[in-house]
Specification:
With 313 residues, the chain is α/β, with parallel strands linked by helices. The protein has 11 helices and 10 strands. Bound molecules: NADP nicotinamide-adenine-dinucleotide phosphate (NAP). NADP nicotinamide-adenine-dinucleotide phosphate binds next to strand 10 and helix 10.
Length: 313
Amino acid sequence: MTRLPGIDLELSPICLGTNTFGWTADAAASHAVLDGFVAGGGTFIDTADMYSTWVPGNSGGESETIIGEWIAHRGRHDDVVIATKVAAHPDFRGLAAETVAAGCDASLARLGVERIDLYYAHHDDAKRTIPEIAAAFDALVRAGKVGAIAASNFGPDRLREWVEHARAEGLAAPVALQPEYHLLRRADFEGALQPTTEALGLATFTYYGLASGFLTGKYRSAADVGEGARSGAVGTYATAEGFAVVDALVEVAQARGVAPATVALAWLRAHGVTAPIASARTAEQLPPLLAAGALELADDERSRLDAVSTPFA
Ligand SMILES: NC(=O)c1ccc[n+]([C@@H]2O[C@H](COP(=O)([O-])OP(=O)(O)OC[C@H]3O[C@@H](n4cnc5c(N)ncnc54)[C@H](OP(=O)(O)O)[C@@H]3O)[C@@H](O)[C@H]2O)c1
């Protein structure tokens, strides 16, 4: 469990992704996932204002709305940490100060909370200077609308600049980075991002921990990819090198008596990730994800997975 400055609650070692909400999971299934996650000890939930705009008929905000309904129904928000993001909703694009402020208000309204626990810049905005971005996010913390701030999909140089500028100026500084990182995409994180986060003392919450489901072991050949909602992303991993990683995951998992998804997420933790993010379409998919918070890989297991995923490093 991890604590971050500005956030009262301890973060669970696995963060629940919620881009499935309003996409592959309807409201009832999403609420069952949230209930199951909390019942299984989860405290950390990741969403974004733009989830799930890519679904025909959606306009963005569906995931936050579903989470807001769940919070309202339970009547409490104090036992979960909600992270959301701004910059990619069709009505709130980029990181201009007025966009960030208006996007935050819209997220607060959809979530039905007085404060967003962790608020991310979803991606960088090259049109804005770092001092502009830093001031926009600092204002939200000072207004009490946000507990802590963070960056997603930032490059190492602009991330460092934001953190160092904010610290030097006495502004709220990012406490975490959310980049993509998993066994089939290692180079960017391990190359420059991870050394930067370590040097700056930032937490890391990495996304696509299951490579969109490819690393659960349910795809063992190209024929398994099919035509589902995830087939586009999963299809890109369906190579000999990708299946070799899955084969190794399945063998390590069988030897440990756990699911391949558990090993895939435990491998991220073994590589220093503070809390990997993974999503579930149904509550039944949750136990292997939650189990990853307690699985410590042995050195030989980690080395084997490191070696077989070298083509992605
Ligand atoms: N910051 C960013 O730019 C960014 C970008 C992308 C994602 N994210 C965050 O990261 C989260 C995770 O990404 P993601 O959901 O796209 O990918 P993911 O976690 O790598 O894959 C999740 C998918 O794998 C399948 N799955 C999960 N558990 C399973 C199980 N036990 N057995 C079989 N299949 C299982 C499910 O899809 P099916 O059942 O449909 O196969 C599930 O939706 C997102 O929800 C979001 O919060 C952030």
